[in-house]
Amino acid sequence: MSLVEIREISKSYGAVQVLKGVSLDVTKGEVVAVIGRSGSGKSTLLRCVNGLEVIQAGTIRVDGVQVNDPATDLRKLRQQVGIVFQSFNLFPHLSVCDNITLAPRVVKKQAPEQAREIARDVLRRVGLEGKLDAFPSQLSGGQQQRVAIARSLAMQPKLMLFDEVTSALDPELTGEVLKVLESVAQEGMTMILVTHEMGFARRFGSRVVFMHEGRIHEEGQAAAVLAEPQTPELKTFLSAVLH
Ligand SMILES: Nc1ncnc2c1ncn2[C@@H]1O[C@H](COP(=O)(O)OP(=O)(O)O)[C@@H](O)[C@H]1O
Ligand SMILES: [Mg+2]
């Protein structure tokens, strides 16, 4: 069964249609890499899955729950669907521990001790054990992004959405964040990630989805799609990002 079911969704901002009938299924444990030019609708698609955007047509279900049903409790949904952005959005005045435990304590009513234990666990999973009491300003950009990923993991989501999480980082910091994504994927997390890292997409995107002008223009197994693009648009895109 699909964990994520996106059926013919349409999204407009005013008169501008940004998603033009997008359908996508993601099964449990699958990693789907979304690629495409700037403005093709990748971020909008992720934001729709998380219920951050209202859609005009179609349906989105996550684990059977219809995201675009006004009766759906979006706060509850977002406990199950983590999203990490390019900008880390950590609270600068809070310690790493407090950044990670804030939502579990407020939303899930976790006791401080329990929340701290979970924070310890998720920090270990992103390779930052020992940084529990550090402040964001004391960390590199790559470490801050790993804390942002840990914060999302602390909610124990069923699905994680990553929107160009390495784009703001220097190349040497990109690698450490990609490694964390790899290990989260290996733990069995279902992931949809927008990325320009084609090497990563090839190794870990079990499937690649190429978006072009608000539609899924081409999709398939990563190795095949990247090695043998079928459409001129994907060929052009790949030659631009690979060279
Ligand atoms: N809040 C918004 N209001 C109006 N237009 C928007 C908004 N967000 C995105 N868009 C437009 O929607 C299109 C797709 O954007 P986006 O999903 O961010 O693309 P991508 O992530 O692929 O670069 C772009 O043309 C963008 O300008
Ligand atoms: Mg984007």
From TrEMBL:
PANTHER family: AMINO ACID IMPORT ATP-BINDING PROTEIN, GLUTAMATE_ASPARTATE IMPORT ATP-BINDING PROTEIN GLTL. Keywords: Amino-acid transport, ATP-binding, Cell membrane, Membrane, Nucleotide-binding, Transport. Residues 4-238 form the ABC transporter domain. It comes from the Bacteria. This is Amino acid ABC transporter ATP-binding protein. Belongs to the ABC transporter superfamily. It is a peripheral membrane protein. One of its GO terms (molecular function) is ATP binding. It holds the Pfam family ABC_tran. It is found in: Cell membrane.
